[in-house]
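Re: beginner question about structure tokens

> Can someone show what the tokenized structure looks like for a real chain? I only ever see the sequence side.

Sure, here's an example I had lying around. Input first:
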Amino acid sequence: MAMPKKTKNTKKTSPALQERSSRKTIIDVAKCAGVHWSTVSRGLNPEKRHLISPEMIERVEACAKKLGYRANAMASALRTQRSRTVGVIVSNLGDPVHPPIVRAIEDSFAEIGYVTIVGNTDNHPLRQAALIERFIQQGVEGLIVATFERNDPGIAACVEANIPVVAVFRDPESEFIPSVRVDDAKAMELAVHHLAECGHRQIAHVGGPQNVSTGYHRYRGFRRACKALAQDGVAPTAVFGEAFTVEEGEFACERLLTENPNITAIVAGNDMLAVGCLRHLRNKGISCPGNISLVGMNDMLFMDAIAPALTTISTPTAELGTQASHILIAMIKGTPVQNDRIVLKPVLLARDSVAAIKLPTRTRSSDFSDAAKREVRIRHRQS
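And the corresponding structure tokens:
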């Protein structure tokens, strides 16, 4: 009986492995361009391309494109001990204040050939700690963090890892961490003075959490402005939300008006809180600005398109990201940082959510009620 012929057992190579084995190298690009491989390296490196002519850069790029060359980032990182990546940590990319900051950071680092990796904490300290640890393990060359609390314990991990870190938007108030933020206290002062100029005297603050610099300094700016206007009759009050969210703004506004029904104006700690206040006012049939005027903070997207268009304080979000990037790039390169405490100026944007009210005429002594006159006489006899 004829035995079946043995067939050779040949291993099939997957398309991915075939592609990897035939991947073009920097040597192939150099041969195509007729130059040394080091010239190709310079031409494809944004930090070093200034060392060769524009014509040579164009030639190298054309050959790299023709051959389908892609730089091996992992091999480069092992060789140079540089990953050419940075990490960015924000509380929530769904919050309209964060995307412009992240976009500016990405743009700044893309110019020098770096990739930006973004992580969300959802305002959970443990998640922030996990992200910091993960980014460090991934070998990022630096971090920009927008979620630090005041005196944040996460700073110790960054210092111990000896990784360059810059705080943006929120300031951890640490001597070890450079920061870029807006003048939050000044922003609230602008809001209070604007309302006072429009005749408001019963002014309230719906603030955010006090364990972060934004909530802390905004409340103190509000309080300082009211104190400066006390002689004009400004009487302040404040309530606080547990987070800078629409829902917290709604709850806080309800508490505020239950306890202080004579309020004529509200300065919210940010636009999200302001929108929450506006939602509560509408649900209760309270006109804004007819009965209560409202001011927000940050000038987030579409705040000029809601009804009424929100008077708010503009935060230069893109500039925050750009300035933070410049500091981190300098730290990564080991060059001196001229200013590691950058505070940007806020700008008031007056819109439709604030209305002027008529101030009552000053009470003269001849207009006192009989009861008030009797009280004055009694005090005079007792003195």
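Each token stands for a local structural state, so reading them left to right follows the chain. The chain is about 45% helix and 15% strand.
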